[in-house]
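Exercise 4. Each item below gives a protein and its sequence. For each, produce the structure-token representation.

Item: WD repeat-containing protein 37 (Cirrhinus molitorella).
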Amino acid sequence: RELSDPPLKMYVRYTVHSPIRLLYVTVAPFWKIVSSFKATTSRAVCQLVKEYVGHRDGIWDLAVTRIQPLVLGTASADHCSMLWSIETGKCLLKYAGHAGSVNSIKFHPTEQMALTASGDQTAHIWRYMVQLPLPQPPADISASLDDDVDFSDKDEADGEADGPNECPTIRVATTTLKSHQGVVIAADWLVGGKQVVTASWDRAANLYDVETSELVHTLTGHDQELTHCCTHPTQRLVVTSSRDTTFRLWDFRDPSIHSVNVFQGHTDTVTSAVFTVGDNVVSGSDDRTVKVWDLKNMRSPIATIRTDSAVNRISVSANQRIIALPHDNRQVRLFDMNGVRLARLPRSNRQGHRRMVCCSAWNEENQACNLFTCGFDRQAIGWNINIPALLQEK
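Answer:
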């Protein structure tokens, strides 16, 4: 892979082939029996709705526009970003202005503008205009699901696509931000949309003025490459994540003081840390844990979620505060803020991701398709999560 691409995480899948099949009969405790029933019924409340196929390499990141028309945006290692019709799954627009892997995408809070970060050491702001096509009949999602079915090489090749239908292409950015000396791995808009923050492998985060493209602040202190950055939805707060096992909270609410707090709750790379609508930060890590923190007292996490695989870019639903965990092992799991597991998204030879899942994004404005995931099988997937039924199972 080219040097501008983020490092791929490798995992080995072991399969034992034997002509002898053994049947084990055990007596399970009552609580384990209940748990198995829960895993089965949760399939009915987590259903695949739409697949978005057309990128020629893995998809690192995705986001949904904050204003109408609601469209899905994806950022891929194929040097392109695409906008998709959520209902039809068709590509509406392609942005091809970067010279390296597109590592993240975020949409302006009030205008039709997108912010993308790239391995070409820049972040781009570009304007878009899209026209939504007429919706298609709903897909058949009644096929039986089997979470334990593995994938053959033939199944993996099914992710190959000839590319999306012809759609308009933008090749020139409205604004180019280029003060970093390394890969720009993520970028986000500060509240109000007049400033943006970028995170880079050069170990720094930069704060820019959107109108002038000028560098306002350089945020230094991380000992290793940054992996992600996120802004608070209503306050001038920024959180940056790093391979140095820490994440940092930067406070820009007072123009004369720019304070920073360092949090050392993980033992491996912090892959993302995100704000919730309330006073919480949720962090995910390669150490296979997710931690929930209280902004008012961040000495120690208020909840810790332990999993069996590294966790990538997480997201938290605004209304119900459900955490969606994308994993290296192709799974996507849902937890509440107390660390209680709610569900695992279906995955079989017919449905689900076939490679590492890189990112999740909630979209509670669309009840039919309210969660999106993407991964290195080159596709994004839209899911319907029946949240009332999910919480009732809990």
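Check: The chain has a mean pLDDT of 85.
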